[in-house]
Amino acid sequence: MENLKFGSSSKENEFKTQIDANLVLDMFIPVVTMSEMNVFGHWSVRYKRFKEQKARILAKWQEEKIKISIPCHVLMIRVAPRAMDDDNLRGALKACRDIIADIIIPNKSAGHADSSPLIVWEYHQEKRQPKIYGLHVKIYEIPK
Questions:
Q1: Of the four listed, 1, 58, 115, 138, which is most buried by Cβ atoms within 10 Å?
Q2: Is the pTM of this model over 0.70?
Q3: What are the tens digits of pLDDT across the range 38-96?
């Protein structure tokens, strides 16, 4: 899906209002994500990072106590001091995508729910001050 930028025109503001009206979930998860394509090291370090991401996302999701209906649009915004290119951004958020998809569609085997055509994925990133990391997740309901 293409990146949408909102200006001051009334038509664009009307479109943004329609999108925000379908907002079901808006949460920030303090988790470190890094490019998995450019990180070399022992497999257990990567596994530990994925396990921590999963635990933080699940804990935050349980706080929200919300059930997401499908079809839906998931916007994941990586927050970090440095930006990544598009390929690395997707790789960095892959484990988070798997976890979120498993929560939305719980009856599929682990790691396979994200391939469902009922979930539309979008990736963005924000640069912040040093030592501020996280994942901002927004989920929009898609009218049937």
A1: 138
A2: yes
A3: 777 787 888 888 889 899 999 998 888 888 888 999 999 999 999 999 989 998 999 99
Please check whether residue 28 lies inside any domain of the structure.
Answer: yes
Residue-wise pLDDT for 100-118, tens only, equals 999 999 888 877 888 899 9
What DSSP line would sit under 26-57, residue for residue? EEEE------SSS--S-HHHHHHHHHHHHHHH
54: domain range?
23-141
Alpha helices in the chain (DSSP H): 10-21, 43-64, 86-92, 94-104
Q: What is the CATH number of the domain that holds 61?
A: 3.30.1330.70
Tell me if the bond preceding 143 is cis, omega within 30° of 0.
no
